[in-house]
From TrEMBL:
[4Fe-4S] cluster binds at residues 410, 413, 417. It comes from Blautia massiliensis (ex Durand et al. 2017). The lineage of its organism: Bacteria, Bacillati, Bacillota, Clostridia, Lachnospirales. Signal peptide: none annotated. Its EC number is 4.1.99.17. This is Phosphomethylpyrimidine synthase. Zn(2+) binds at residues 270, 334. NCBIfam families: PRK13352.1, thiC. The gene is thiC. Keywords: 4Fe-4S, Iron, Iron-sulfur, Lyase, Metal-binding, S-adenosyl-L-methionine, Thiamine biosynthesis, Zinc. Its cofactor is [4Fe-4S] cluster.
Length: 434
């Protein structure tokens, strides 16, 4: 029987949980090394006690960078079977977390299917689900309605919930007075903002934060503190609205830790490349090292259809500079609900960014596979190269579709191949070109 409520409480009591043991093994750490990181909040092990099939992962800047995949139906694309196909494809490709952002239909069966069948961490945004769950317009919902949906998600086994706790009624004046180009682009943040404007009441996720902490403590749900004021364009990056909200999120992080509730902090957003590192350092300071969970960052506003690339550029710099968790961005960002191919492209871009960052910051074992790939390429061993590749199917398909005359080369260089020439030269063999 568990004699602790959360992973953080267990770590503070010196209890090595089964989840912590698994994470330590994955990260090539000892449990003695990992325990104080969980106890201090620098690592979160998002594992709801009702998510029985979870394969636990740790989220923290000193661990391997983790990747989240956003999925879920909308009014225009409402096939839950297709979404479940995307989920399993994402898990097979190495996604560590799935966020269900469904905004249409009966969301309960899909959410419960995720927490009963999916081994990845499951996240949700309860404020989206509130309107859908009650089938009532936003301004008719009460603070209690929002809190009850948080409880429902916790009971359903969700491992982390994004809650936009950091905006208050003061934010309304800030947004009106500071004349941002893009105002608020966070979907959840805009709903909370609109609710405050229509009802005249304070943000319920801020006002009743202690009650939410009690729910999260009971089920061991990690709070992902949503950045309602994240910049939606480069012009709004690192402005007063974003930074003031971050300061409040730092205060809320401390309050959660006082109740042994694990926290991640969400971050930008659209950020010029030269500001990405600074954003990471400011968050680490203000939020006392709590894991930073970033969307991108997207480093230019003008590449719709290619935002998996703009976000991978920002994500690599962000993770190298201290971000722990990258939310993938697909080519469909700003345009449409992603299809299966978009999901794949988004995951691959994020995986590349995360792996590059892990090498740069010296995560244990991160570069081993690269060194194996170098050995395989030197030997012109194609099968060994497929085994090292992040996406072996794609690599193999491209090579086969443009197959060379001789298998010891590729169709780019043929017998002009530098590797082939060097191997032969060093072995004292004749090098035939023509």
């Amino acid at each position: 029987m568990r004699n602790y409520s959360t992973q953080m409480e267990a770590a503070r009591k010196g209890i090595i949980t089964p989840e912590l043991e698994i994470v330590a093994k994955k990260e090539r750490m000892t449990t003695e090394e990992l325990l104080p990181l969980v106890a201090s909040g620098k690592v979160a092990i998002c594992a709801n006690k009702n998510h029985k099939c979870i394969d636990p992962e740790g989220v923290g800047s000193m661990l391997r960078t983790k990747i989240n995949v956003n999925l879920g139906v909308s009014r225009d694309c409402k096939d839950y079977d297709v979404e479940m196909q995307k989920v399993m494809e994402a898990v097979n490709m190495g996604a560590h977390a799935i966020m269900d952002l469904s905004s249409h239909g009966n969301t309960i069966p899909f959410r419960r299917k995720l927490t009963s069948e999916c081994p990845a961490m499951i996240g949700t945004v309860p404020v989206y689900d509130s309107v859908i769950h009650y089938q009532r317009d936003l301004d008719t919902l009460t603070a209690k309605d929002f809190i009850d949906v948080v409880r429902l998600h916790a009971q359903d086994g969700v491992d982390f919930v994004t809650l936009h706790c950091g905006i208050t009624r003061k934010t309304i004046d800030q947004i009106r007075n500071h004349k941002r180009k893009m105002n608020i682009v966070s979907r959840g943040g805009s709903l909370v903002f609109a609710w405050m404007c229509m009802t005249g009441e304070e943000n319920p996720f801020y006002e009743y934060y202690d009650e939410i902490l009690d729910i999260c403590r009971e089920y061991d749900v990690t709070i992902s503190l949503g950045d309602a004021c994240r910049p939606g364009c480069l012009a709004d990056a690192t402005d007063v609205c974003q930074i003031e909200e971050l300061v409040r999120l730092g205060e809320l992080t401390k309050r959660a830790w006082e109740k042994d509730v694990q926290v991640m902090v969400e971050g930008p957003g659209h950020v010029p490349l030269d500001q990405v590192e600074a954003n990471m350092k400011v968050q680490q300071s203000i939020c006392q090292g709590a894991p930073f969970y970033v969307l991108g960052p997207i480093v230019t506003d003008v590449a719709p259809g290619y935002d998996h690339i703009t976000s991978a550029i920002g994500g690599a710099v962000a993770a190298m500079s201290g971000a722990a968790f990258l939310c993938y961005v697909t080519p469909a960002e700003h345009l449409a609900l992603p299809n299966l191919e978009d999901v794949k492209q988004g995951i691959m871009a994020s995986k590349i960014a995360a792996h590059a960052a892990d090498i740069a910051k010296g995560v244990r074992g991160a570069r081993e596979i690269d060194d194996k790939m170098a050995d395989a390429r030197r030997k012109l061993d194609w099968e060994a190269q497929w085994e090292c590749a992040m996406d072996p199917e794609t690599a193999k398909r491209i090579w086969n579709e443009r197959k060379p005359e001789h298998d010891d080369t590729c169709s780019m260089c043929g017998k002009f191949c530098a590797v082939r020439s060097m191997n032969k030269a060093l072995a004292g063999e004749h090098i035939d070109i023509l």
